[in-house]
Amino acid sequence: MVRTLKRSTAVSQIFAPVAGPGPVPVTLRVNGQVHRLGLEPRRSLLDALRLGLGLTGAKRVCNLGECGACTVLIDDEPIYSCLTLALECQGRAVTTIEGLAADGTLDPVQDAFVGCDAVQCGFCTPGQVLAAKALLDDHPDPTDEQIRRGMAGNLCRCGTYTHIVEAIRSLGDGRSGGRVGEAESGQGDQADAGPAARSLRRSCAREAADRRSPGPDLPPLTPASHLGGRR
Predict the structure, then answer these.
(1) Are 27 and 90 in contact, with CB atoms under 8 Å apart?
(2) 113 C-beta neighbours (distance < 10 Å), count
(3) Under 8 Å between Cβ of 175 and 142
(4) Pairwise CA distance, residues 180 & 193, whole Å
(5) pLDDT in tens, 176-199
(6) C-beta of residue 180 within 8 angstroms of C-beta of residue 88
(7) DSSP, res 3
(8) 3-state percent breakdown (helix, strand, coil) of the chain, nearest 5
(9) Which residues contact residue 147 at a Cβ distance below 8 angstroms, ignoring those fewer than 6 apart?
(10) Most buried residue, 6, 27, 163, 213, by CB count within 10 Å?
């Protein structure tokens, strides 16, 4: 589940000098790169990412910490960036959706979302993907209940929840594969989990491709553009 950033209550911080109200120097490490900005202390991390760095994958929707569209990872924990001050993120590692793909290759979580057709309008997808990545880091083989609880902080107004669960399940360390094996052979042999999980993902990809097949006069869709493109 997405969280708000833990704040220290150390006496040295309670009585620290007040910054602002004008812009102050802020150093952020985002997707492995260091950025030095001049920001008003009231500015959220979401504003710093979108307006200061041009990283528009995190979306500003409710701005109240209720929808999860602004989710990013801070020290590998999912955080609502709309409720987090940029000043608080100094000295921490911030990861946005733009930082997941390496050398043009999608992260396995992004790939699973595309393959299982877990994207529609794509607006909430960056936050969903990052929340799912954090969930899988904590629970490499999550149960359906853990998936639902772990993703409860991210809303999808297109209603793709079933496909999101399928995408996350397909990346488990054996659970999804065991279920496929049970359906085919009557037993859930964990030794077959890897190939079975890959088979599930190929099946999801084929079904998604069939649903996305364009008509004769329509250009082909590019699902990967939903995973962090400018909106």
Answers:
(1) yes
(2) 32
(3) yes
(4) 8
(5) 433 333 333 333 333 333 444 455
(6) no
(7) B
(8) 45, 15, 45
(9) 135, 165, 168, 169
(10) 163
Q: Give the count of beta carbons closer than 10 Å to the beta carbon of residue 37.
A: 16
CA-to-CA dists, residue 7 to 10, 156, 175, angstroms: 9, 29, 36
% of the chain beyond a pLDDT of 70:
66
Strand partners, 42: none
Query: How many Å apart are CA 124 and CA 218, to the nearest integer?
Result: 25
Question: To the nearest whole number, what is the mean pLDDT of the chain?
Answer: 79
Q: Give the ranges where the chain is alpha helix by DSSP (H).
A: 11-14, 45-47, 108-115, 125-138, 144-150, 161-170, 175-185, 193-212
Whole-model pTM?
A: 0.71
What is d(CA 73, CA 95) in angstroms, rounded to the nearest whole number? 5
Neighbours of 164 (CB within 10 A): 27
